[in-house]
């Protein structure tokens, strides 16, 4: 986006916890950009996975071919993040 140069300054102003999911082969939202956003802030968590854009759900599944477990590891990351952030 045209305003991308302002993002680092704006990110520094965000004080709430942030959870990011990033695929290692994502050319749309690149892993390096997510790493920059997460930085070394303890309230920002980056979960990277082998895959492309929007590939987190099938990749983060203990058994991707099963309806019961599709996205289960993805949901576990979200639940752990919310618990750590104090959201119940």
The separation of the N and C termini measures 35 Å
Percent strand equals 5-15%
Outline: flat
Q: Please report the number of helical segments.
A: 4
Task: Give me the oligomer status.
Answer: single chain
Rg from alpha-carbon coordinates: 14 Å
Helicity, in percent? 25-40%
Runs with pLDDT <50, length 5+?
Answer: none
Which structural class should the secondary elements be placed in?
alpha+beta
What do these coordinates show?
It is a single chain. The protein is of the alpha+beta class and 88 residues long. The protein is 36% helix and 14% strand. The chain contains 4 helices and 2 strands, in the order αβαβαα. The protein has helices spanning 7-13, 31-38, 56-59, 72-84; strands at residues 18-23, 44-49. The chain has a two-stranded parallel ribbon with strand order 1-2. It is flat and about 45 Å long. The mean pLDDT is 90.
Write the layout of secondary structure elements.
Layout: H1 7-13, E1 18-23, H2 31-38, E2 44-49, H3 56-59, H4 72-84
Parallel strand pairs: 1-2
Structure summary:
The protein has helices spanning 7-13, 31-38, 56-59, 72-84; strands at 18-23, 44-49. With 88 residues, it is an alpha+beta fold.
């Amino acid at each position: 986006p045209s305003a991308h140069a302002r993002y680092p300054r704006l990110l520094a102003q965000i004080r709430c916890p942030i959870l990011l999911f990033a695929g290692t082969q994502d050319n749309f939202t690149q892993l390096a950009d997510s790493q920059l956003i997460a930085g070394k802030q303890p309230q920002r968590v980056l979960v990277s996975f082998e895959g492309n854009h929007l590939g987190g759900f099938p990749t983060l599944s203990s058994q991707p071919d099963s309806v019961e477990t599709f996205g289960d590891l993805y949901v576990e990351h979200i639940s752990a993040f919310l618990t750590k952030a104090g959201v119940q």
